[in-house]
Amino acid sequence: MILCRDCDALFSSAQRCPVCDGARLVSHPELTDLTIAHIDCDAFFASVEKRDRPALRDRPLIVGGRTRGVVAACCYIARLSGVRSAMPMFEALQLCPDATIIAPDFTKYSEASRQIRALMTSLTPLVQPLSIDEAALDLSGTQALHRAPPAVMLSRLARRIEQEVGVTVSIGLAANRLLAKLAAERDKPRGFAVLGRDAASLLDPLPISLLPGIGPALARKLAGLSISRIGELARLDPLQARKMLGEDGPGLVERAKGIDHRRVDPTPNPKSISAETTFAENITDPARLRANLVQLAEKLARRLRQAESAAGNLTLKLRTARFETRSLAVPLHAPTQLSETIRDAATPVLLAAADGTAYRLLGIGTNRLLPASEADHGDLLDRETPRRAARQRAIDHLTEKFGPDSIRRGLPPKKS
Known about the structure:
Elements: E1 2-4, E2 10-11, E3 25-27, E4 36-41, H1 44-52, E5 61-64, E6 71-74, H2 76-79, H3 89-95, E7 100-102, H4 106-121, E8 127-131, E9 134-138, H5 143-146, H6 150-164, E10 169-174, H7 177-184, E11 192-194, H8 199-203, H9 216-224, H10 230-234, H11 238-245, H12 249-256, E12 273-283, H13 286-306, E13 309-311, E14 314-320, E15 325-330, H14 339-353, E16 359-366, E17 369-371, H15 384-402
Parallel strand pairs: 5-7, 10-11
Antiparallel strand pairs: 1-2, 1-3, 4-9, 4-10, 5-6, 8-9, 12-16, 13-17, 14-15, 14-16
Helix pairs in contact: 11-12, 13-14
């Protein structure tokens, strides 16, 4: 089956659309049967900026902080020079010296994201936002409502987003979320790709790093085991995978086979919460690092309370002046929402890392979110934590009434 993305005509064979003579065609035997989609905005921040500055349409554009910042996003023209997201800005400008740099405007991006999400939910209530610029959709059962298969409705949606919001998207259509995401990456920008029963053969020769959840460290570990392609991982049996890769091994093999049992869940469900800051100048002084940690602990605790969650673990993030990132586990004895608990737990780890190394970034976060009801109960030996929690609730009430700057917390005294 073939779909024309310009007029939504469906036909069985042709090099161009028999209705509008369009050449933007999507062809797949299962095109009208698959219902799970992944939609990813193309270079979202940069696209919004180019929408608002038409003179920049054909110029390389980088969105991010200047001098000491990093690239938040870049257009596809800049990518041709090797610029990538999260790259240090000085390095990006060495690769693309004629690029225009624009500071990010997250209020504007959030509004564009809200508009796109509203268009998505006009197709199906089963929309799961995955970030500001991507989402998974389940269009099962919508054909009777829209009188067209999901593939046609997604094609129409892409055109509406382009016309009404002014940015382009790439679409992946498949039988599950994993394959839909992989499909969305295959044909960017303005792409529409489909993965069906042919997924295993198409994924087999691809680099292992393209599989979601496999970062640089795990990719290096797999390479050390002579596994560099998705197919090589898929051919491991579960027992062998567990022996080589630990408890996550069998799950990795399933992903390599294109198996994914996750449903599209529209309920907000953040997997992690964090706070970080990039310093205006590199810092080696432990006291200055500690002062920044106090502010970040406040920010993280506030975000946890706003999300009605508690931190079940903590990780300290440090980036050196040479752009080496260090992630340090912070011992946490019980779930918490309290900035003091976060600060006190992280301070010894931070001070141990303050060994004269120059740091340009400090962050703290959690990737184990628990219900707020599990936080800060204390025990027979810890009567103070529940009091701190009650005090924090009172502070939250006051700041909600009088503003966020009505109460400020000072640095705790240094222990002698």
